[in-house]
Amino acid sequence: MKIVLLGECMVEFFQLVENVYHQNFAGDVYNTAVYLKRAAPNLDVQFFSAVGTDLVSDQLVAAVDAEKIGTSLLLRNKTARPGLYMINTDCFGERSFVYWRDSSAAKQVMQLFAAQQKQAELLTSQWFYFSGISLAILSAADREQLFVLLAKLKAAGIKLIFDPNYRPALWQNNGNDIAQCREAFIKAYQLADIALPGLDDHKVLFEANHAEDVLAQLKALGVPEILVKNGKEGVLLYADGQSQAISAVQVKKVVDTTAAGDSFNGGYLAARLQGANAVKSAEYAAALAGFVVQHTGAIVSRDNFALFSQDHPLDFAGATL
Ligand code: ADP
């Protein structure tokens, strides 16, 4: 079973103390790919993006490779470098993010993809995952090309998975208004086989007040499987024509909610793509996201992930599925 995930991975600088930073690689879709592959090592997970030809790009590719995620769709862009962001923490523990991604290599992914004729590699996949951030970083023309590609993939029987991950600043910085964003998300939902929105995304964009409002909207758009994420309130799941609330796990101390949604998506897909039903998959995902929010940074260390896996074995013989 193969899944391709389209997104941007950036250089992350996480502030430890004043003027001292820990360097890592992260980005919403990449985080999901990492958790998906760690939880389901048997799946063929491919990261579709673009990086440069510089030293940091080589390190980024090596980091993806070290996670056993396929890099043959990680295209090289001779004229650009990866994006970068810093996470600073103030004296009250509040985090703030500053980005340098306006000219990142990943923005050129569709043009490189066309030039390098990689379509055949996508067509051997069964699943294709993308987010609202994958859409937001593209120019309007490249976004159109992506929608043409998505329609082709869908026609070829490939299932599409979409998380809107709405970031207003990213759409505005790229010269788009809110109406263009809404239009792109609606198109994405109309193609999606699984949608993983956050209630917060829809509060601003579509004036939703409750998870039920999001569900009603996406059902009307024809999405067959929907998970509306709502932080510690848990998830409203719709699958096989039924809806059900899935509770978040009780967490003693929330340390850092970065990547809660990304890890939830990775956990859900790890179970679901291996044949678990939607409810069991969402429960596994909630356990994983609940673990991730108790650790700093987007991606927990491999040792910490191994501790989680010991307590939550994801195997068909075990109780988890
Ligand atoms: P996003 O990061 O996309 O905004 P959410 O904040 O809705 O996503 O979180 C996704 C999932 O992570 C939730 O559905 C829940 O399972 C888990 N989660 C998030 N915050 C908490 C928390 N404080 N305690 C326990 N689980 C949490």
CATH structural fold name: UDP-N-acetylmuramoyl-L-alanine:D-glutamate ligase
Annotation field: number of helices:
13
Instruction: Provide the spatial order of strands within the biggest beta sheet.
Output: 5-4-1-8-9-10-11-12-13
Gross morphology is: globular
Instruction: Estimate the strand proportion.
Output: 15-25%
Helix content: 40-55%
Name the poorly predicted regions: 317-321
CATH architecture: 3-Layer(aba) Sandwich
Number of strands: 13
Going by helix content, strand content and strand pairing, the class is alpha/beta
Biggest beta sheet attributes: 9 strands, mixed
CATH class: Alpha Beta
Q: Rg from C-alpha positions?
A: 18 Å
Distance between the termini: 18 Å
Average pLDDT level? 94
What binds here, in terms of ligands, is: adenosine-5'-diphosphate
The CATH superfamily is identified as Ribokinase
Kindly give the count of domains: 1
| Topology order in helix (H) and strand (E) letters | EEEHEHEEEHHEHHEHHEHHEEEHHH
Commentary on this structure:
By secondary structure, the protein is of the alpha/beta class. It has one domain: Ribokinase (UDP-N-acetylmuramoyl-L-alanine:D-glutamate ligase). It is built from 13 helices and 13 strands. The chain has helices at 28-39, 55-66, 109-116, 119-123, 132-136, 140-155, 168-173, 178-191, 199-206, 211-220, 260-272, 278-292, 302-311, and strands at 2-6, 10-17, 20-26, 44-51, 74-76, 84-89, 95-100, 127-131, 159-163, 194-195, 225-229, 235-239, 242-246. It has a nine-stranded mixed β-sheet with strand order 5-4-1-8-9-10-11-12-13, sandwiched between helices. Helix 6 (140-155) runs parallel beside helix 8. The longest helix has 16 residues, at 140-155. The protein starts with a strand and ends in a 10-residue tail after the last helix.
